[in-house]
Design brief:
Distance between the termini: 95 Å
Number of strands: 7
Number of helices: 15
Strand content: 5-15%
Order of helices and strands: HEHHEHEEEHHHHHHHHHHEEH
Largest sheet: 5 strands, mixed
Strand order of the largest sheet: 2-1-3-5-4
Structural class: alpha/beta
Length: 455
């Protein structure tokens, strides 16, 4: 393929695109992205090339979570504009862009996938097999290729949102994972939409609009087109990036404080498990706060990554901020909440719920928070001059409560659905039992009338 500047893709570039397009088989799922990164350096080490691209590295991580360890090796990834590295204009496609897009359609015809996960779009252009925008569609389109093959298209958004531009925003990661799961489920037509999915899409749309306004005020643009980006290939203010992580951590820690404050309030005592679920999910959006904090802690641990001799000063600032805010949370906030003397009390939360008789979500939450406080406390120790902390233990504490909290919410949601279904069945059985004598009575009356008429 000849570009407009009369250059050709290099052999390594073409070979890498072929590697992404594997496995060499028809059917299955194709993940469609927009275009390759302009500054990508191509070598024969395809895994190394992938690792150098945060978008593809994140995509492989998401694939491993949803479908297993195969990752990009077992899932085909096509670019809608292969080998085109200049931005795709929203005002109209150039000659090379048209040729590249037609190549993409040819690839789909050869592959004959059952499902395309559309993670690309060009603003102002209504192109086949493109997405509709972040969280903007729940419908699965059925599109017919020129060879007659029908493909189901699941709406997605570019993983660069999560890998590059909004790495500290957990809601986008959750939405991308959900939509990717939907794409895989469509292979077996097993997907069912639910209310919480629309709520997540709605929240992510609102957050995206908010970020666009904020970044616009700061003179920065959020990548809405959806191309891959490499580190250092754009004006990347690391100080601003880490300030965003600090903000995410502070918001997440505040959500945890609100959660703990609620758990020792009279309102908590009178709540049912489902009321508590609604409070966490719909009122406080607690999960998002916990995961935002976890993302910030995960980023901060890079300061201590082996081989990192001179970490970014902004990364050091993030790490120090997280350690001191967490220590303050343990020394001051938790004791104040429970009316204890200030200090590090490992068993302070377990003492609060020592005689608890809670069940269901409440019991799970109490156990998770007890463990969280113990894990956080274990990550700090006091030397002769100052407090020190162990980053891995701190990260483990936030990771464990995030997982436990999500699993507890999932169990409560499943229990609630089962109870509702059982309630409906019981209502039907009760109604049937009450109607049965009435039907017998009605039948006898009808028969008597008929006999009387024949006399």
């Amino acid at each position: 393929m000849v570009r407009d500047d009369q250059t050709y893709p290099s052999k390594n570039e073409a070979d890498f695109a072929a590697w992404l397009a594997k496995p060499d088989m028809q059917g299955g799922l194709v993940i469609a992205l927009l275009q390759p990164a302009k500054t990508q350096v191509y070598t024969t080490d395809f895994q190394g090339v992938k690792d150098e691209c945060p978008t593809l590295a994140y995509l492989e991580e998401a694939l491993a979570f949803v479908s297993g360890p195969g990752g990009l090796v077992t899932t085909s990834v096509f670019d809608a504009f292969p080998f085109i590295t200049e931005p795709i204009s929203s005002e109209g496609l150039s000659k090379e862009a048209i040729n590249a897009y037609n190549t993409f359609l040819d690839m789909l015809e050869a592959k004959k996938p059952e499902v395309v996960f559309a993670c690309w779009r060009v603003n102002g252009q209504d192109l086949l097999f493109s997405g509709k925008g972040l969280g903007r569609s729940t419908q699965v389109e059925s599109l017919r290729l020129s060879n007659g093959h029908v493909v189901r298209v699941v709406n997605g958004f570019h993983p660069s949102y999560t890998a590059n531009f909004c790495a500290n925003e957990s809601c986008f990661r959750r939405l991308f994972t959900m939509e990717l799961c939907k794409a895989f489920c469509e292979l077996n037509t097993a997907w069912q939409e639910d209310k919480w999915m629309d709520i997540l899409r709605w929240k992510c749309q609102g957050r995206a609009r908010q970020l666009i306004k904020e970044k616009g005020r700061d003179g920065e643009q959020l990548n809405r087109g959806g191309g891959r980006v490499l580190p250092g290939s754009r004006e990347d203010d690391s100080a601003r990036k880490y300030k965003a992580y600090i903000k995410s951590f502070d918001n997440g820690l505040q959500r945890l404080k609100q959660t703990f404050k609620h758990m020792v309030s009279p309102a908590y005592e009178s709540q049912s498990s489902w009321d508590l679920y609604a409070f966490f999910v719909f009122s406080q959006n607690t999960s998002e706060g916990i995961y935002d904090a976890l993302l910030a802690v995960s980023e901060a641990t890079k300061r201590f990554k082996p081989g990192t001799s001179m970490p970014d000063p902004s990364l050091v600032e993030l790490s120090d901020h997280i350690s001191w805010q967490t220590l303050k949370f343990l020394l001051d906030d938790i004791p104040d909440l429970l009316q204890y003397p200030k200090g590090l009390h490992k068993n302070i939360w377990s003492s609060q719920f020592a005689t608890s008789t809670s069940r269901g979500l409440k019991w799970n939450m109490e156990e998770s928070t007890i463990k969280f406080i113990e894990n956080l406390t274990n990550s700090f120790s006091q030397s002769s001059k100052s407090w020190i902390y162990i980053p891995d233990l701190l990260h483990h504490a936030f990771k464990e409560i995030a997982i436990n909290f999500e699993e507890s919410l999932g169990e409560e949601y499943d229990d609630h659905r089962q109870n509702r279904a059982a309630s409906v069945l019981n209502s039907v059985d009760t109604l049937g039992a009450s109607l049965y004598p009435l039907s017998l009575s009605t039948s006898r009356d009808a028969g008597s009338a008929k006999l009387a008429g024949n006399t």
